[in-house]
């Protein structure tokens, strides 16, 4: 095989891995005509970081970097000057990839249009803006080492484990975090709340996805829809820019692995007042049942089934409250080109009514039943973010 064919093959592998690693979600401003040119703010519990430019521009991008320097950043969290990266760059997961994987990603990124776009990455307050503190963080939470197959598992399982644990970096959102922002390693993929959305427990066991089949999980990853749910918000971006671009075999492999990860059984500790639930039920029948149906089952592949929705069956009401207040646009993909939207009701319902209907939905169909509270705080957080539909129809 000639050098040209080898280069082409490396670029195509890199293109695929770049999608698998969801690089576009962070490094491209939504709607921008300049992919991977950086500038997108990334909210963290500690402040805001801004994704850098990773186009091949030599001055403001990575065009002047060596392959070794690029590998050190991706898999070891080290900048060209040797200083440590913040874990908003998910290098603890990318460390599972091989050096060949990362070299292929670099080969692909070298083919995109260079864009001059200087980015100031660090907007954290003092003393968090001092990168030397990352030495302690790395010692606590970063374990280098490429992914190794589990001999007792199937080839499909191992492929799925590699994608979930490595380039897919699913745990970056779905694994609970310590007060320092590191993964709680004893609770992998058991759910976390970030940027105003719940990344639910995606283990099988008795978690929110326990009744989803492997094929249902794979369909959701590939199309953004299945008979139970529709991807929106942060997960909508993941589907659009990453998992929908993977092969059918790879999303099935990811589903195979996820269905084999055990999780805790949710507890039911509802304290919702009966009058609140009655009021919430009336609001639901008036405003929600036309789409979600009176029994909450929705419409397969279009309207989420609330009886099996992961965000209804999780202990954190953040997403339920957000979607009631703000509405949500589900993702449209090649396989499912219709992306239905839920209208916002924040303009129509007061905080007491929002809490009531959220309580009704989560207590009537949820398995992790807790009364949603602080709807006023959720409303404030929604208004602080860019609204999708949080306005009265004109």
UniProtKB/TrEMBL annotation:
Heme c 3 binds at residues 288, 291-292. Its main location: membrane. Residues 1-113, 155-262, 275-365 form the Cytochrome c domain. Binds 3 heme c groups covalently per subunit. Heme c 2 binds at residues 170, 173-174. Residues 365-394 are annotated as: Disordered. Residues 368-394 have a biased composition (Basic and acidic residues). One of its GO terms (cellular component) is plasma membrane. Keywords: Cell membrane, Electron transport, Heme, Iron, Membrane, Metal-binding, Repeat, Respiratory chain, Signal, Transport. Its cofactor is heme c. Heme c 1 binds at residues 23, 26-27. GO terms for molecular function: electron transfer activity; heme binding; iron ion binding; oxidoreductase activity, acting on CH-OH group of donors. It is found in: Cell membrane. This is C-type cytochrome. It comes from Bradyrhizobium rifense.
């Amino acid at each position: 095989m000639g050098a040209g064919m080898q280069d082409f093959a490396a670029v195509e592998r890199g293109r695929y891995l770049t999608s698998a690693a969801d690089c576009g979600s962070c490094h491209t401003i939504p709607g921008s005509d300049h992919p991977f040119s950086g500038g997108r703010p990334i909210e963290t519990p500690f402040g805001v970081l801004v994704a850098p430019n990773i186009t091949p521009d030599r001055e403001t991008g990575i065009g002047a970097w060596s392959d070794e320097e690029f590998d050190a950043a991706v898999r070891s969290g080290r900048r060209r000057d040797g200083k440590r990266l913040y874990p908003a760059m998910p290098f603890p997961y990318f460390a599972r990839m091989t050096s060949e994987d990362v070299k292929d990603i670099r080969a692909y990124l070298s083919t995109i249009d260079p864009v001059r776009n200087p980015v100031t990455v660090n907007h954290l307050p003092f003393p968090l803006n001092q990168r030397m503190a990352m030495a302690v963080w790395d010692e606590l939470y970063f374990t280098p080492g490429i992914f190794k197959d589990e001999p007792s598992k199937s080839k499909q399982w191992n492929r799925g484990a590699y994608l979930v644990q490595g380039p897919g970096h699913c745990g970056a959102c779905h694994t609970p975090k310590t007060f320092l922002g590191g993964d709680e390693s004893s609770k992998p993929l058991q759910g976390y709340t970030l940027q105003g959305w719940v990344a639910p427990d995606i283990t099988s066991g008795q978690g929110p996805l326990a009744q989803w089949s492997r094929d249902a999980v794979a369909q959701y990853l590939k199309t953004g829809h299945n008979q139970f749910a529709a991807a929106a918000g942060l997960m909508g971006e993941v589907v659009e820019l990453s998992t929908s671009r993977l092969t059918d075999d790879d999303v099935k492999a990811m589903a195979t692995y996820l269905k084999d990860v055990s999780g805790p059984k949710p507890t039911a500790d509802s304290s919702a007042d009966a009058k609140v639930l009655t009021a919430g039920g009336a609001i639901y029948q008036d405003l929600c049942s036309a789409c979600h149906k009176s029994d909450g089952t929705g419409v397969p592949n279009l309207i989420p089934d609330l009886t099996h929705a992961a965000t209804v069956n999780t202990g954190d009401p953040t997403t339920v409250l957000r979607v009631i207040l703000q509405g949500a646009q589900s993702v449209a993909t090649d396989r499912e080109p219709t992306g239905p939207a839920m209208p916002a009701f924040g303009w129509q319902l007061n905080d007491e009514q929002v809490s009531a209907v959220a309580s009704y939905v989560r207590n009537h169909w949820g398995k992790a039943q807790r009364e949603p509270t602080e709807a006023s705080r959720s409303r404030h957080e929604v208004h602080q973010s860019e609204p999708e539909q949080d306005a009265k129809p004109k």
